[in-house]
Amino acid sequence: MILPSLLSDSYGRIIRDLRVSLTDRCNFRCLYCLPETEEAANFYRSRFHPVRNPLPATHKLPEWMPRSELLTFEEIERLVRLAAGLGVRKIRLTGGEPLLRQGIESLIEKLTRIPGISDLAMTTNGFLFAQKARALKSAGLHRISFSMDSLDPANFKKMTGRAGLDEVLAGISLAQELGLNPVKVNAVVIRGLNDHEIEDLAEFARERNLSFRFIEFMPLDSSRSWLKEMVVPSAEILMRLRSKFDLRQVAASNPSETARRWSFPGGRGEIGIIAPVTEPFCGHCNRIRLTADGKIRTCLFSVSEHDLKGALRGGASDSDLVDQLRSIVWQKEDRHHIGEAEFKTPSRSMSCIGG
Ligand code: SAM
Ligand code: SF4
Fold first, then answer.
1. Contact, 293 vs 309, CB < 8 A?
2. Beta strand 295-297 pairing with 306-307
3. If the chain, 355 residues long, is cut into consecutive pieces of 10 residues, what is the mean pLDDT of each piece?
4. Rg of the chain's alpha carbons, rounded to an integer?
5. Residue 38 burial (CB < 10 Å; 0-12/13-18/19+)?
6. In the sheet where 295-297 sits, what is the strand order?
7. How many angstroms separate the alpha carbon of residue 273 from the centre of ligand 2?
8. Contact yes or no for 325/86 (Cβ under 8 A)
9. Which domains does the chain have, with CATH numbers?
10. Per-residue pLDDT tens over the stretch 133-183
11. What's the 334 CA to ligand 1 centre distance in angstroms?
12. Ligand 1 center to residue 256 CA distance, Å?
């Protein structure tokens, strides 16, 4: 039975997890998210369809949102407090690059004090983490996920558009020293780009006792270059890892977990595979997203968004906002349609939505 005080959709899913994007800006230019150059944007197409469909020479980075459009920390805190009152328990701060948001530690402090919020995590590219780590930890951050797609400095630069591997590695070590455990590391796997590193990345997870997540490439890049040929299916990743490591499947701690997980013998480190393309987990999705400019997205692949900033800034009461949240969540999509004829690419890319 669904309790009336919870945020539920029309399929009976209860929302427990709110991802909050703090900015659309980023200091990296990952090929699969926010490619900077014509060459980067075209990398995939030129690889798989050399002549047929290069992108036109009009590739542009999305324009950053004006700062006045970004929700203030007070506005974010208010919405999180209301969501917590409706049963949301987990908050993940993301972006763009969340560490570019000035004074982020003061937001973390506010959010950890909200009754009901039991898990406050962040996803970062890690480049600025070492500079801010102690302040984040003392503000109360519980957990952190880094994104690191390659252990090879040249390939890292090719994938992220920046020479930042050393900084990210230093950030990962520091997070472990500070006890932000389990430290997670995510890699988007792209055929022909970093799939030759799958085993090395898993070995890195084992050596460093990390939770490593391999993520299938999704059609959310700003250049709209995604092609199914570039997705390395979860089954292939697993087969390769199994042929090198004696992996044991780890039972899911809850049905909404996005990753299927395996541990290494000896219990050090763990790998997980997130397979939204080949093995979608929409039926158990308990997530919604709040964009940096105050829109709720009920699915990564939503084609429409629901504005809350207008209501926040227009004097809406808490009970008006709660009613709006409930009615928005009720409309959550049953599933995404990647790979189907009716699939529509969302108008905003991952860096604007908040991954
Ligand atoms: N900048 C931070 C970072 O990279 O960790 C946080 C935002 S980023 C959009 C969040 C996550 O989305 C990262 O782990 C990134 O690898 C992932 N991501 C971005 N574009 C993606 C895509 N097209 N397919 C799959 N994952 C993607
Ligand atoms: Fe920036 Fe993260 Fe997107 Fe890379 S994945 S461009 S680090 S927002």
1. yes
2. antiparallel
3. 76 96 96 85 64 55 90 98 98 97 98 97 98 97 97 97 97 96 95 96 97 96 87 97 96 87 93 93 92 96 93 97 96 86 84 87
4. 20
5. middle
6. 248-250, 259-263, 270-274, 211-216, 184-189, 143-147, 119-124, 90-94, 17-21, 287-290, 295-297, 306-307
7. 19
8. yes
9. 17-353 (3.20.20.70)
10. 999 999 999 999 999 999 999 999 999 999 999 999 999 999 999 999 889
11. 23
12. 19
Pocket test residue of 100, 215, 348 for ligand 1, highest count of atoms within 8 A of CB: 215
- HEC profile of 236-249: HHHHHHHHHCCCEE
**Residues contacting 202, CB < 8 A, separation 6+:** 212, 241, 244, 245, 271
The whole-model pTM stands at 0.95
Q: How far is the CA of 315 from the centre of ligand 1 (A)?
A: 34
The three-class DSSP label of residue 73 is: helix
Bridge partner residues of 20 (DSSP): 93, 290
Element (H, E) at 120: strand 119-124
| Residue listed under structure tokens 């270059």 | 225
Q: Could you tell me the end-to-end alpha-carbon distance of the chain, in angstroms, rounded to an integer?
A: 31
Q: What is the pLDDT of residues 127-145, one digit of tens each?
A: 999 999 999 999 999 999 9
Ligand 2 contact, 28 CB (< 6 A): yes
Closest CA to 165 of 181, 176, 149: 149
Residue 226 Cβ contacting ligand 2 at under 6 Å = no
C-beta of 125 in contact with ligand 2 (< 6 A): yes
Cβ partners under 8 Å of residue 255, min gap 6 = 284
